[in-house]
Design brief:
This protein is mostly helical. The protein is built from two helices and no strands. It has helices at 6-41, 57-76. The two termini are 28 Å apart. The mean pLDDT is 85.
Length: 82
């Protein structure tokens, strides 16, 4: 069995990392948009809102941290740390 070119293996791995990150980012944006729409539609104007949202900012913030970490690992990278 012939060995693959190491540069081709790295390129495929990098393409996979980018595809996974952008998939994560698009999912995040779509779901967060839906959460904001739901929150605004159900907003009871109780006076406890933050930027007009009652609760949607919590998952947006939490998941946003995960997306930021994923972006850091994808673009800044920790390649070669092992």
């Amino acid at each position: 069995m012939a060995h693959e070119d190491p540069a081709l293996v790295r390129a495929r791995r990098r393409a996979k990392e980018l595809r996974e990150f952008y998939s994560h980012l698009v999912t995040y944006v779509l779901v967060c948009t839906l959460l904001v729409v739901i929150d605004l539609a159900n907003n009871s104007a109780s006076g406890t809102e933050f930027l007009g949202l009652s609760w949607a900012y919590w998952p947006i913030f939490g998941w946003g941290i995960a997306v930021a970490i994923h972006a850091f690992k994808t673009f800044v990278g920790v390649a070669g740390w092992e």
